[in-house]
Design brief:
InterPro entries: Methyltransf_25 (IPR041698), SAM-dependent_MTases_sf (IPR029063). This is Class I SAM-dependent methyltransferase. By secondary structure, the chain is α/β, with parallel strands linked by helices. The chain has one domain: Vaccinia Virus protein VP39 (Rossmann fold, 3-Layer(aba) Sandwich), CATH 3.40.50. The protein contains seven helices and nine strands; from the N terminus they run αβαβαβαβααβββαββ. The strands form two sheets. It has a seven-stranded mixed beta sheet with strand order 3-2-1-4-5-9-8, sandwiched between helices. A two-stranded antiparallel sheet has the order 6-7. Helix 4 runs parallel beside helix 6. The longest helix has 15 residues. The radius of gyration is 16 Å and the shape is globular.
């Protein structure tokens, strides 16, 4: 049974998240994992001339790429976050667009060298809908890469997720969790030539690792 996403309610949720997650003194930085300085960097994207980040959040990763001379565009559902990032990173050349990611990918014809998500839209959008749309927005040999927490054993598919605590107004969304082999299968079914999904161990034993997925278009 597909999850039912209430976009208006999710927009309010991510606007609330923006108020706490965005830091005015943040610097550009690119890290796939939730641990600073841990794991690979943007080299997983290859050597792109253009990138699209889906669910770009605070914009730090996009600003980092833009400073390297890459044409960098980000899409985020939260108008509050997009207003903040547009102001904060204006000097980097990064571009931020407020849109629901599936609508944006469906309604625009731009083609990118790489599309990526860091704990972003690839975690919160139905992969059955998202992956074919991403594939269409990539040029030959283009890279799609994303990271998020790994699935909890035995808890697969769409998972309900409250945000902002468990008291007060009920704000929730859905995240999608699968075993690495299933992510690979979903990507190849969507038309990607190759797909590799793996879990990177945390820097401290017993801590939560990071699912890292990379797929390449034909």
């Amino acid at each position: 049974m597909p999850a039912h996403h209430d976009i208006a309610a999710e927009t309010e949720l991510w606007d609330t998240f923006a108020a706490s997650a965005f830091k005015e003194d943040a610097e550009p930085g690119f890290c796939w994992t939730q641990y600073a300085g841990h794991g690979p960097g943007p080299e997983l994207l290859g050597a792109p001339r253009s990138v699209l980040e889906i669910g770009c959040g605070t914009g730090r990763a996009l600003a980092h790429l833009a400073q390297q001379g890459i044409a960098a565009r980000g899409v985020d559902l939260s108008p509050v976050m997009v207003e903040k990032t547009t102001t904060k990173w204006a000097g980097t050349g990064a571009e931020f667009v407020c849109s629901e990611v599936l609508e944006y990918l469906s309604g625009h014809e731009e083609v990118y060298d790489a599309v990526y998500s860091i704990f972003g839209a690839a975690w919160f959008a139905d992969p059955g809908r998202l992956f074919p749309l991403v594939r269409r927005r990539l040029g030959p040999g283009g890279v799609f890469a994303f990271s998020q927490p790994p699935a909890i054993p035995g808890a697969y598919g769409p998972q309900g997720m409250y945000k902002g605590g468990f008291a007060g107004k009920a704000m929730f969304t859905y995240r999608y969790s699968y075993r690495p082999a299933v992510w690979e299968r979903l990507l190849t079914r969507a038309g990607f030539a190759t797909a590799d999904a793996r879990v990177i161990d945390a820097p401290h034993p017993g801590h939560i690792g990071t699912l890292l997925v990379r797929a390449v278009a034909p």
